[in-house]
Amino acid sequence: MKDQEAMNGYNWEKYTACTAEDYRKARATGDFSDSKGHCMLEGGELEIKCALNLAKIYLHTEPEGKVLDVASGSGYMAHCWKKLGFEVTGIELLQEGVALARDTYPDINFCQGDGTAPKKYFEHMKFNVVFIREFHPFTRIDDFDLQIRIIEDYLDIMHDGGVLIIDQSRRRDCPNLNMEKVRKVLSGANVKATPPLYFFPHKHLKITSRNKSLNKCLSRLTDIYSMVTKKYPVQLCLIHKCL
């Protein structure tokens, strides 16, 4: 990823060093406050339920079974998936994150590895859900061809009928994955992708197949709102590996 780091003018080595130190501190003290900038620490089940609800409405599927949590960090989101009844594996680049996650959630399988090369670690495994939330640098590089290659690699380690969930903070100060372009490039006979959607806390439970157009309108308004307020809403794209 060295060339990508140079292209984007972002010091990923510095970022990962800072993150590693925060993980070490959390593991030593039990204080996760410094990790908030790197990991989600609350509200995870609600966000996952939103994604599963959107999969049901837009893709007509209800995933269950094995989940791969990519860039699992402190392990919190993997824990939320497990609480919802899934069998979970987490992959994380930083050994400090893996150690913290294993200590905090010993009933979940966490492994250290590079999430941009999933087939290196899971060539002989298949998942029903792949969950990619704020996976840096994947969502923050300005290289769409590389992003598509990574997505296709994850589709290769999914069962037919599985769902790939990509979840990112829609920022204005750095590159984002172009989810609409992903939908156009990947959608075909064997793959179906949703348009970019947004997570609305506490409101997603009201979204039904009858008001999909309302959700689409709200998504557009949220995008405009984020431009004006500089706040970063959570944007989702769901990709179905059709049977």
Structure description:
With 243 residues, this protein is an alpha/beta fold. The chain has one domain: Vaccinia Virus protein VP39 (Rossmann fold, 3-Layer(aba) Sandwich), CATH 3.40.50.150. The protein contains 9 helices and 8 strands. Strands 1, 2, 3, 4, 5, 6, 7 and 8 form an 8-stranded mixed β-sheet that branches. Helix 4 links the parallel strand 1 and strand 2. Helix 2 packs parallel to helix 5. 38% of the residues are buried.
CATH superfamily: Vaccinia Virus protein VP39
- The helix fraction, in percent, is 40-55%
Could you please say which CATH topology applies here?
A: Rossmann fold
Distance between the termini: 34 Å
The residue ranges in which pLDDT falls below 50 over 5 or more consecutive positions are 1-9
Overall spatial form: globular
Count of domains: 1
The top level CATH class name = Alpha Beta
The number of distinct β-strands equals 8
Which class of secondary structure composition applies to the elements?
alpha/beta
Average predicted local confidence, pLDDT: 83
Name of the CATH architecture:
3-Layer(aba) Sandwich
Topology of helices and strands:
Elements: H1 2-8, H2 12-29, H3 44-59, E1 66-70, H4 76-83, E2 87-92, H5 95-104, E3 109-112, H6 119-122, E4 127-133, H7 144-156, E5 158-169, H8 179-186, E6 191-193, E7 197-198, H9 212-229, E8 234-241
Parallel strand pairs: 1-2, 1-4, 2-3, 4-5
Antiparallel strand pairs: 5-8, 6-8, 7-8
Helix pairs in contact: 2-5
